[in-house]
Amino acid sequence: MPRDRPAIGRVMAQVAMVMNLDKCIGCHTCSVTCKQTWTNRPGAEYMWFNNVETKPGTGYPRRYEDQDRFKGGWTLDRRGRLRLRAGGRLRKLLTLFYNPELPALDDFYEPWTYDYDRLTTAPLSDSFPSARPKSQLTGRDMTPSAGPNWDDDLAGSAGYAARDPNFQGMSEQVRMEFERAFMFYLPRICEHCLNPSCVASCPSGAMYKRAEDGIVLVDQDRCRGWRFCVSGCPYKKVYFNHRTGKAEKCTFCYPRIEAGQPTICSETCVGRLRHLGVLLYDADAVQAAASVPDDKDLYEAQLSVFLDPEDPEVRAAAERAGIAHDWIQAARRSPVHALIARHRVALPLHPEYRTLPMVWYVPPLSPVTDAVHATGYHDDDPDRVFAAIDALRIPMEYLANLFTAGDTAVVEGVLRKLTAMRGHMRRRQLGDGVDQELLDSVGMTADQIEDLYRLLAIAKYDDRYVVPRVHAEDAGALLPQHCAVGDPGGVLGHGVGHGARQHGDRPAGAPPAVPGAAGPSASGDGSTFRDSDGRTRFNLLGWNGKGDAPGLFGDGSGS
Questions:
Q1: pLDDT, tens digit, 9 for 90 and up, residues 147-174
Q2: Under a CB-based contact definition with an 8 Å cutoff, are residues 183 and 156 in contact?
Q3: Residue 192 burial (C-beta neighbours within 10 Å; 0-12, 13-18, 19+)
Q4: Do 494 and 217 contact (CB within 8 A), yes or no?
Q5: What is the pLDDT of residues 421-446, one digit of tens each?
Q6: pTM score of the predicted model
Q7: With CB atoms counted within 10 Å of each terminal CB, which end of the chain scores lower, N or C?
Q8: DSSP class per residue in 155-220
Q9: Residue 553: pLDDT band by 50, 70, 90 thresholds?
């Protein structure tokens, strides 16, 4: 890819994801499997590291995209320098014990379960017993009024669509006519940004970005529960565990990534819409890219940060930076790099937050064919197909507000490429010749179109997920940092760190409970671990709140 900078700076590798929204059917399988893997613990009932939203809609938590309310992400000061939207150190000090930008539980929802015991223990009666909803926080009867997918499939409802922050700046006429538009699903996880505002917002330094693969994690030993990371994240993908007093977030399934496996949401995705791969980028160019004055230039600015792994100079610089050879080769085969940088059909979610997100999306094309047929045109005619793109039922401005900070030209260009791909492959299946005029209209060759088709339509498992394994020489440092999934509060020791922070940003604390290494526990919940000196120690992160907690109050009584 052409670059404006004269020389390659510090090369780093990032594991990134691209989702093809045309394939998402809103089944929430990814959400359920993620929750069963990561947040099936006390204090994490309301956490959804992966959720699927209906667009248009208010999202989860409600109206998280309204940064006038939540003050997430970055902004530029008068001198063009990056500043946290929520304010600097002085404001954090003044709001240390009261954060006005922190989402309330009502912005998420009060989690509930059902009184299933009543179904089997109710006495004989002429009426059928019912399982009443009960709060998972208080245990009392309640009436559910919100949830992570509460507004599923209600995009056409004026009550939900009108409150979508992405309608800001659009005409009232468009709002009122949008009920005729189709809806689409938007799966969301942590963006694992190149310029994460959650990391910069953390007063205790517990949030960090791993140098080896770019995954953003929480060091549970350092976390003090200030929750500025929650308000600092514009995507609201950091949560607070009220049982452990710690922040938790999507881990990008880093134990699976280290083993060369895809994330659990990718593995179980019914629509096979997720792609995982390695991107090489210039770390020295990140700040300049996030600081461009015009929000609409942020998409191109972030593209300029990514490096072409086919460039021999880039590969040489990557090797000098210590990136393993197999990681460089994985970057060359990366479907993520192909969709983002080579074919340029994937777009970032809300680049105007200036975090440089690393989970990108192929915008939905579904309404194009419907619009063409509705107008009486035949979609074999590229000119008429492209004319229909300009008159979609879903406003182009809406997609642009989601993915390009309002630049409709970029979204239109992507939809044109996807339309040309459909037209070209249809002609090929029917035995017609190549329509060179169609290909020229989008600046692509037949080989490029067919490569894009293989990625988006028929990609096999090994083509969708190109994730290199962690190296064996690092395994000894990695294994002690892992903990049992069943440990209450312990699995989110995910931040204690890959290789004990191999790159020396700061030392890791004591590891959480390790399977097979824990000694007798006072509470029987896996809250103790055996240290390297052979002594059995108490781990507060693994404590479920019951039984004794030795040393918790500093008096040695354990009461």
A1: 888 888 876 566 677 778 887 767 555 5
A2: yes
A3: buried
A4: yes
A5: 988 998 888 888 888 988 998 999 99
A6: 0.81
A7: C
A8: TT-HHHHTT-GGGTTS-HHHHHHGGGS--EEEEE-----SS-HHHHH-TTS-EEE-TTT--EEE-T
A9: very low
- Rounded CA-CA distance 377/384 in Å is 7
Dihedral sign (CA 44, 49, 52, 57): positive
The pLDDT of residue 482 is above 80: no
Helices 312-320 and 325-332 meet at what angle, rounded to 10?
150
Closest to 15 measured CA to CA, from 236, 335, 479: 335
Helix (H, G, I), strand (E, B) or coil at 228: helix
Continuous segment of H or E residues that includes residue 478 = helix 475-478
Do residues 346 and 361 lie in contact, with contact meaning Cβ atoms separated by under 8 Å?
yes
The backbone torsions φ and ψ at residue 285, rounded to the nearest 5 degrees and listed phi first, read: -100, 0
Distance of CA 221 to the CA centre of its chain: 24
Q: How many residues does the chain have?
A: 559
Which amino acid is present at 182?
F
Closest CA to 18 of 269, 197, 273: 273
Which phi and psi (to 5°) does residue 348 adopt?
-80, 155
